[in-house]
Automatic annotation (TrEMBL):
The keyword Transcription regulation does not apply. Residues 83-194 form the PAZ domain. Residues 368-518 form the Piwi domain. This is Uncharacterized protein. Keywords: RNA-mediated gene silencing. One of its GO terms (molecular function) is RNA binding. GO terms for biological process: regulatory ncRNA-mediated gene silencing. Belongs to the argonaute family. Ago subfamily.
């Protein structure tokens, strides 16, 4: 059609998408392109007053086979609809009915409740809803307010007005309504309203719990998707019928093939120099890395209070021994003795170990730091990586305390492989690459690039996106990669600094090469 705008097909897709989302929007809670309900699957607790709700993602996509309806299962965190007292107990991890809240605990509960909707439970079937904006600084038994030119306590008011006896008088009241003229609601007379999505950052424990409940085998996921399509009844959707849209209840079938596993090449001094992975798995038994790194100067630090210094030192010695068995040159003795510190002292401890090692090594560089972390370490891991990588210029390898207590040969081998790559070694190469049998790549010197951008969650609109580019360095094996990482504009998919204009005078060697004077 003459005059058609380039964005018209996208607009048509958006119209179809809106039509097919109408019925689901009436049945479920809509969160961006996904729909959630506690009826889809039983919610699972995530801890600290949160639970996971299951749902599904839906969108219309143009494909080579025509228009397709894309359905996928999803899950996100919601605030658990608990009585407010039970919610506070989960936040603090202890009973709150026996003693008054400390100032610190009151602030924690206040932050958790702020902006949440609660409904009253002391007036029978009347369930008025309010939004919480704070907590009183005083316990309920100290609260008085002016009503009809008379000062009255909160306890007296609720008894006279509603016949409700406040039992937990040592707890503060919720502040709701107008901030200039707030209303007091006893915590025991309130319950959190169901269906409130949690928009703040999840802690490490909650993320782990969410991943556990969302992890599914492909067959189970297929069954859930089929069940979702059946329950939504797209073939009976009145809005789809009105627009003449027909949705097949069958999954799309495409032809595919399973590529054979590649043979892997290890060092010839091992009992097994070649290996064929089976079902995507293989191990390092009887094998040595194809190129072992050299670690002459290393140190260790223990941030776990549950791990004794002797146990931590023994673990590090076992790890060093495993590295040697796998073909690396790894000094058996650390530059300085094991150092123990508390997690909150991470910055000072890391710099202390680094400087102490430099002093002992008399000008030689510390190459590797082994770090033992508590099993629940919060932001400690990120702090360690940031300080070591950006401030000290030091490679680090972190291990959880639970692995230190139960030393497993397979775990030690896996960690050793990580150390080898970090320190410049190569664990294995493809046998076809060594034999120059990879099409195109083996024909001429080739660099393989990889690039991606990772975006923060939509709720974290102040966090940058992270762009990364890697490139192979060791043709013809193309196994060893160098990488660059940088932050860029929020949710920008195009890598910001991927293209750059260079001037020839910045590269005198390049100029000489092309003028024939090299």
């Amino acid at each position: 059609m003459a005059g058609r705008q380039p964005d018209e097909p996208q607009g048509a897709l958006q119209v179809l998408d809106v039509v097919l989302r109408e019925v689901a929007s009436q049945r479920y809670l809509s969160v961006r392109r996904s729909f959630y309900s506690p009826d889809i699957r039983t919610p699972q607790r995530l801890g600290d007053g949160l639970q996971s709700w299951f749902g599904f993602y839906q969108s219309i996509r143009p494909t080579q086979m025509g228009l397709s309806l894309n359905i996928d299962m999803s899950s996100t965190a919601f605030v658990e609809p608990l009585p407010v007292i039970d919610f506070a107990a989960q936040i603090l991890g202890k009973d709150v009915m026996s003693r008054p809240l400390s100032d610190a605990n009151r602030v924690r509960v206040k932050k958790a409740l702020r902006d949440l909707k609660v409904e009253i439970t002391h007036r029978g079937s009347l369930r008025r809803k309010y939004r919480v904006f704070g907590l009183t600084a005083q316990p309920t038994h100290e609260l008085i307010f002016l009503i009809d030119d008379e000062m009255k306590s909160v306890i007296e008011y609720f008894k006279e007005m509603y016949g409700f006896t406040i039992k937990q008088q040592h707890l503060p009241c919720l502040l709701v309504g107008n901030q200039k003229k707030p209303n007091y609601l006893p915590m025991e007379a309130c319950k959190i309203v169901e269906g409130q999505r949690y928009k703040k950052r999840l802690n490490e424990k909650q993320i782990t719990s969410l991943l556990k409940v969302t992890c599914q085998r492909p067959g189970d996921k297929e069954m859930d998707i089929r069940r979702t399509v059946h329950q939504n009844g797209y073939d009976q959707d009145p809005y789809a019928k009105e627009f003449g849209i027909n949705i097949s209840d069958k999954l799309t079938s495409i032809e595919a093939r399973v590529l054979p596993a590649p043979w892997l090449k290890y060092h010839d001094t091992g009992k097994e120099s070649e290996c064929l992975p089976r079902v995507g798995q293989w191990d390092m038994k009887n094998k040595k890395v194809v190129n072992g790194c050299t670690v002459n100067h290393w140190a260790s630090i223990n941030f776990s209070r549950s791990v004794q210094e002797s146990t931590a030192s023994g673990f590090c010695q076992e790890l060093a021994q495993t590295c040697r068995l796998l073909g690396m040159e790894f000094n058996s003795e650390p530059a300085i003795p094991m150092y123990s510190a508390r997690p909150e002292q991470a910055v000072q401890a890391l710099k202390h170990v680094y400087n102490a090692a430099l002093k002992k090594l008399k000008g030689k560089e510390l190459e590797l730091l082994l770090v033992i972390l508590p099993d629940s370490n919060g932001a400690l891991y990120g702090d360690i990586k940031r300080i070591c990588e950006t401030e000290l210029g030091l490679m680090s390898q972190c291990c959880l305390a639970k692995h230190v207590f139960k030393i497993c040969k397979r775990y030690l081998a896996n960690v050793s492989l990580k150390i080898n790559v970090k320190m410049g070694g190569r664990n294995t190469v493809l046998l076809d690459a060594v034999s120059r049998r990879i099409p195109l790549v083996s024909d001429i010197p080739t660099i393989i690039f990889g690039a991606d951008v990772t975006h923060p969650e939509t709720r974290e609109d102040t966090s940058p996106s992270i762009a990364a580019v890697v490139a192979s360095q060791d043709w013809p094996e193309v196994t060893k990669y160098a990488g660059l990482v940088c932050a860029q504009a929020y949710r920008q998919e195009l890598i910001q600094d991927l293209y750059k204009t260079w001037h020839l005078d910045e590269f005198p060697f390049f100029v000489q090469l092309h003028t024939g004077s090299f």
